[in-house]
UniProtKB/TrEMBL annotation, chains A, B:
Keywords: ATP-binding, Kinase, Nucleotide-binding, Transferase
InterPro entries assigned to the protein according to its UniProt record, in alphabetical order: DhaK_dom (IPR004006), DhaL_dom (IPR004007), DhaL_dom_sf (IPR036117), Dihydroxyacetone_Kinase (IPR050861)
Lineage top rank: taxon: Bacteria
Residues annotated as domain DhaK: 7-329
GO molecular function, one term: ATP binding
Taxonomy of the source species: Bacteria, Bacillati, Actinomycetota, Actinomycetes, Micrococcales
Protein name per Swiss-Prot or TrEMBL: Erythrulose kinase
Naturally occurring in which organism (per UniProt): Nesterenkonia cremea
């Protein structure tokens, strides 16, 4: 039960504001989250860690010397939007690039990824670390496809310490992945949690049973077992992870240990469990290094706990035990850190709405005006098909695809117009339009279209005109970004089902004819056909939303809207040439 | 709900063991609790803080440089026993005396007090700080009679910092009381907590309401109000404390702020509340100094929160913001503390059962043998009356008085025998016997009789015989200890109803006659009459356990057993003289 709220919809935002008010020596609230309130060394990579709210102290509680540089804070259990991530990263970045860290969830992958695209378009180096420690969520072979749960703490702690010790972005990325690959977690839930304003918990665990392999967003476990004693629970957690003890630690070794309470399993209970764990660790020759027992990655008031082990080598251990000083995580030898009060306050913070428009060369300005015409064309096409796209989406989705596309394209057109008025070149126009599309549309397709426009912008320049190969590259970049961010493959019944055939056909036709308009038109036909196959399948599936068979996937009207827009683009290019 | 237990009766003990296992760099488990695992400077006062378990991080989580030196850990929501407190204090003490800190509850007052008696009998200086911050539990005039809740944190933090900064015991005591007198807390509960192994919470708060003025042992609030929004709750808490803003802060000033979650109100909710509090503080000209928002003094899984303000002056602020490094509470400028790894491990720890028996002078050994005879006499008298004392107790109590007295006297006789075998003098014999009585009997009367024997021992010496005035002083000391520790006054229907008339008569008769046997016998008659008045009253009251009128109190068979034992003592003295 969440007792203390003013308004359910403002809850996460108010929590961030209150958090920042309580910790001014550590953090400052910016659009979308918090960044350190103290200055960071010029050229130091910025560790930007985040995810949804409801997991405190993850993630905002870990911003400070020795750990994070900023934390975008999404809504409860929802990824921060790309614009939130971008805003926080812009404020945190100080010339050394950005290491983004988040738990491996689709929404986070998408929104952090879209923000990364935009930062990269500005020339900022961005590396992405997806924490994937939950052994219950996927096989050992697919370790990096697992979910991220309490392993967030050691991975970000180690990455932050490496950066504090002087790692550059390359090295910080390497150490963070190394930490992630050495980290395993396993959890249990005894009861669900309740979203602010909701009357009922997201789920219940039947009395006398426990859900094995819980998630931290109120996902119930993957199977139920009869409730055990504290020692049996300790054994279950330990034995689960013990199956994955790496070669290096089979006959003993040093491990970071985190026994994490999800919210309502309290400290004394965790210590009773830890007593047994200490015996099991000793029995396996594993020496716990600065073990942590408490609440680190919570899930509102969920009743549950998880065990995390990090199989340490010398490098990881030195970073695990290094000093850190953040609102919710502090550890000594403290003399290794400069006291906060001796660090000057951070002077430059990014404020959204004041995005810079670099001076552009005249040819690029002309192209920008032309691209604005494309955006307006898109807006018109979508408006014409909005209702139809909504109906298609409603067959197997939530019916908001048409509305989202309409809001997104409208936002992009408005942002494009403002950018043009300020003399934007082609690249800047598309980056601004992409940001606005994602922000206005929200949701998955909004983030993907936003990233697509941003990535397209990266193929263009503010300093020169673009020839047809450059324009084609922009289109290929856009499809690439969608594929990389969305993580879908052709056949998954997503926009990619149309976009990939489009992309392949475009490259082939243009290679043959060197006629961009013809190539786009021809590729759009292939996209159309692929999209219709998707639509046919959608229709055949009827209203059955949970299909059970992975091969069918969840149909997506994105393929339809993609092919419609490419068809319009081909026609426009034909008319103009 | 408490989910993770092995055995309800071992829960608190297992939690302490697991806690110590997880935090070896900070603490070592000893009998009754934990002490710092690192050495403390010779001559530094030891801050021994404690209370029941179920409040983590209070109190064990606060043991480390800059805060506590040791923490006795009682059962869930129960005071540690006097022997637990004594054991922890013995291990923590390092030549500078002991400052005991605990929340102001009857059980803690009694058991810490009894342990203090014993330590003082050994020549150790002990000061006692009873935290009394809960404004809902008593009037402002009787501030020091209020309960202790989350104010424990700032009071112990400030006392620990003062000691770290070099305060001697006198000064540490002064600063601690000053901190307590500047601290105000006010709390709300939304639902109760469940003891380990129990099926049902200790209480429920009706849905849609909140209990105002909660306790931290599952006590419900003193009144119910309709549930408010987060901001209304913040206002209620702030306005409650604002009524007691001291003169020094009426037009503004600096305050330590603690917004404490009781267990199930989670962090994001607390931050939403803090956001409003920050506005209210500002509106009153109060500047928060390093505010703390989180879980500090919990009550298992109780749903509730409390606000604590400490009205700071320069001295209190310097200690509030000083560095501290404990398992659950760490704060910088960390460079002000010696890193833990550079502090040597604590070498000498006290182990109960190996209490020292100092060499005794022969006359004192003879007296000790004689006193052992008195203990055996007491054991016999109690055995004879055990059933009757139980019956009297059952009229208005829980019927265990006879059994408790029997267990206590038997334990005392056994401990006395072992001490005699090791050559104990009179003082040591009584101190050992007192400890054993309290330990074996448990409960209130056990603690009081234990303290009485210990205090009697302080009037005697291991180095010399005792004349009659010294023996009389021993009896007066015993009654004094009972009165001081129990806090009862004549007429409250406790052992004091008999003991105080006895004490007064003893001093008067001995002054007249200089005949101890006659004086004791005569005083015992007065005690007997006083006890019978109590018993008459008990009988008249019948079985009505909750009497409603304070003047009647709760009758206590302790007065009966006291007078029986004194009568037997008088007879024995008469036979021997």
């Amino acid at each position: 039960m969440t007792y203390l709220i003013n308004s359910a919809s403002d809850f996460a935002h108010e929590a961030v504001q209150g958090f920042a008010a309580a910790n001014p020596q550590y953090v400052t609230a910016v659009h979308g989250g918090v960044v350190r309130s103290t200055e960071t060394p010029k050229g130091q990579p910025a560790l930007v860690i985040g995810g949804g709210s409801g997991h405190y102290p993850a993630f905002a509680g870990w911003v400070g010397p020795g750990m994070g540089h900023g934390a975008p804070c999404g809504n409860i259990f929802s990824s921060p939007s790309a614009s939130q991530v971008y805003s926080v990263a812009k404020s945190a970045e100080n010339g050394g690039g950005v290491v983004m860290g988040f738990g491996n969830y689709a929404g986070d992958v998408l929104h952090f990824g879209a923000a990364a695209e935009k930062l990269r378009a500005e020339g900022i180096d961005v590396r992405i670390i997806k924490v994937s420690d939950d052994i219950a969520s996927n096989s050992l072979e697919d370790h990096r496809d697992r979910r991220g749960i309490a392993g967030d703490l050691p991975v970000f702690k180690i990455a932050g310490a490496a950066i504090e010790a002087g790692a550059d972005i390359e090295d910080a990325e390497r150490v963070a992945w190394k930490a992630n690959d050495a980290t395993r977690s396993f959890g249990l839930a005894f009861d669900g949690c309740t979203l602010p304003g909701a009357e009922e918990p997201l789920f219940h665990v039947e009395e006398g049973t426990m859900g094995v392999g819980l998630g931290i967003h109120g996902e119930p476990g993957v199977k139920d077992l009869p409730m055990g004693t504290a020692s049996q629970v300790a054994d279950l957690l330990f034995d689960g992870i013990a199956e994955e003890i790496p070669e290096s630690h089979r006959s003993g070794g040093r491990v970071a240990v985190l026994l994490n309470g999800l919210g309502t399993v309290k400290y004394e209970e965790l210590f009773v469990v830890y007593g047994r764990l200490a015996e099991r660790l000793e029995g396996s020759g594993l020496t716990p290094v600065q073990p942590e027992v408490g609440e680190f990655v919570t899930s509102l008031d969920m009743a549950g706990l998880s065990l995390t082990l990090v199989f340490l080598d010398e490098e990881l251990e030195s970073h695990w035990t290094a000093p850190v000083d953040t609102p919710a995580y502090r550890r000594g030898d403290f003399s290794g850190l400069t006291p906060l009060k001796e660090i000057p306050a951070r002077a430059e913070l990014f404020t959204p709405g004041e995005e810079s428009v670099p001076a552009a060369q005249q040819e690029s300005e002309k192209l920008a005006a032309d691209l604005q015409g494309v955006l307006e064309l898109f807006e018109g096409v979508i408006a014409e098909h909005e209702a139809e796209l909504g109906r298609i989406d409603a067959i197997a989705g939530d019916g908001d695809h048409g509305q989202g596309m309409a809001l997104g394209s409208r936002g992009a057109v408005e942002a494009g117009r403002r950018a043009l008025e300020r003399g934007a070149g082609a690249r800047t126009l598309l980056v601004h339009a992409g940001t606005a599309w994602a922000e206005s549309a929200g949701g998955t397709s909004g983030a993907l279209w936003g990233a697509a426009l941003t990535a397209a912008g990266r193929a263009l320049s503010d300093d020169s005109a673009a020839d047809d190969p450059a324009k084609m590259q922009a289109l290929l970049n856009a499809v690439d970004a969608v594929r990389r961010l969305g993580g879908a493959e052709p056949g998954d019944k997503t926009m990619i089902d149309a976009a990939v055939p489009f992309s392949q056909a475009l490259e082939a036709r243009f290679g043959e004819s060197q006629d961009l308009a013809a190539a786009v038109t021809s590729a759009a036909v292939e996209a159309q056909q692929a999209a219709e196959k998707t639509a046919d399948l959608t229709a055949r599936l009827g209203r059955s939303r949970v299909l059970g068979e992975k091969s069918l996937g969840t149909p997506d009207p994105g393929a339809i809207s993609f092919s419609l827009l490419m068809e319009a683009l081909g026609q426009r290019l034909g008319q103009k040439s």
